[in-house]
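Record type: monomer structure entry
Structure origin: computed from sequence
Chain ID: A
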Amino acid sequence: MTYCHWDDAPRCDLHCYEARDGSYVIHVRGLIRPRPLPPVDTSSARARRDSTQLRWIAECDPANQPAPMGLPFAGELLTYPTLHAMRDQIGVLCGLGYHVPASVLEGIDIELTDYRLSTISEEIVG
């Protein structure tokens, strides 16, 4: 399951997901552009063509080339054994200046709460 991805709006500096082996992974953005690239409009063929061309122009703009983030953990791959541990690290990364939509943290908190409640229910019933 993916919790957030680079392209999430408005901006996300992390790619966080549950790996196949059950661990939780954070890819920390290493480079950032001074201005975000415009999105590709898929509402029609013409819109897609025009917006793809605008995106390409923005990618080639010498003043908008990616530069190092300049923050601790930039470009690193972090792995955690539990969702709770990953959630804690996302909080640390936010404190260091990385951008993560609030909805990502809220979603993880809801999932953690649901897990705790199901564990308590199993203990009571079992």
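Annotation 1: The longest strand covers residues 14-18.
Annotation 2: The chain has two domains: 1-30+72-126, 32-68.
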